[in-house]
Write a structure and sequence with these properties.
Low-confidence stretches: 1-10, 15-27, 150-164, 272-282
Number of strands: 3
Strand content: under 5%
Mean pLDDT: 76
Order of helices and strands: HHHHEEEHHHHHHH
Number of domains: 1
Shape: globular
Structural class: mainly alpha
Largest sheet: 3 strands, mixed
Radius of gyration: 18 Å
Strand order of the largest sheet: 1-3-2
Length: about 280
């Protein structure tokens, strides 16, 4: 059984809390309590770890923890402590977005370390994933599906583990616009987190411009849950123009470069799941 299907079953098995008015839920309300968000996250993270290959390198983990802590201090809506892990698999090869699970769990693919041209680009994608969690996207989507289906068990579709990697997922047309809005929301908030943390918010714009490929001609704009690249870029630039201009400084560029080199040695080029990567290997 896939991790995605397990997520569906876990969500369906969690009892809903007292329901909020439909109007509130339509604006982003949530039928799930924070406690149930946390319980869901623990279960999903446990299953996720069973099906992915952790990169158990102290230099990588220490860097992730320090950068994540710096960003987390500027995520005002965060209700859970963030837990960061590096994994070998790239579950979102189109853009290398981290998996963002309820309860604060962020799984960062090695491919993101390699694809980012500098620390600020990497931090931007990390902040984007953290905002998906802070805004409780998974259970907000579950709430909306409950309202749409009018069923006792919600119809759950979780594309990209709380991120934007949903091109290949089966998503009801009713949720396509919602999915795009979640991505735009995470972009909108992530550039502000970056600026508050002293990292250049335009780095996330550069990353999206370079890495997000234009849709294949066979994919209709009307049916894609991923926002148009130019629309995403314009949205972020609009926010950045409103921010106070400061001199942005990298957090630990040399350390990021060292971690990036380590990932390049570990992960073969164009390999999403290297079979030879061991769970415990020397530095």
């Amino acid at each position: 059984m896939s991790v995605l299907r397990i997520a569906v079953l876990i969500l369906a098995g969690l009892a809903l809390t007292a329901q909020e008015p439909v109007g509130l839920a339509g604006k982003g309300g949530n039928f799930f309590s924070l406690e149930k968000d946390a319980a869901l996250g623990r279960q999903l993270a446990a299953e996720f770890r069973k099906r992915t290959t952790p990169i158990d390198k102290p230099t990588v983990q220490n860097y992730l923890d320090r950068l994540g802590k710096r960003l987390a201090a500027h995520v005002p809506d965060a209700t859970f402590p963030f837990t960061f892990s590096a994994i070998a698999e790239d579950l979102c090869p189109t853009i290398h977005e981290p998996a963002a699970l309820p309860g604060g769990y962020v799984f960062v693919p090695a491919a993101l370390f390699i694809a980012a041209q500098d620390e600020a680009e990497f931090a931007g994608m990390l902040a984007h994933a953290m905002e998906h969690i802070a805004q409780r996207r998974v259970t907000r989507q579950a709430t909306q599906s409950q309202l749409v289906s009018h069923a006792s068990t919600p119809l759950i579709f979780i594309g990209g583990w709380g991120g934007g990697c949903s091109e290949e997922q089966s998503i009801p047309l009713a949720f396509v616009t919602q999915q795009r809005s979640y991505e735009m929301e995470a972009d909108f908030l992530a550039v502000q987190v970056m600026a508050r943390a002293g990292l250049d918010p335009k780095a996330l714009v550069r990353y999206i411009q370079r890495v997000q490929v234009r849709r294949a001609r066979t994919v209709s704009k009307a049916y894609s849950p991923v926002p148009d690249r130019d629309h995403r870029v314009a949205n972020m630039l609009w926010v950045i123009e409103k921010l106070q201009t400061v001199d942005y400084a990298a957090f630990a560029p040399d350390e990021f470069a060292a971690v990036q080199q380590k990932m390049r040695r570990l992960i073969p080029v164009n390999s999403h799941t290297p079979p030879s990567l061991m769970r415990k290997t020397p530095e």
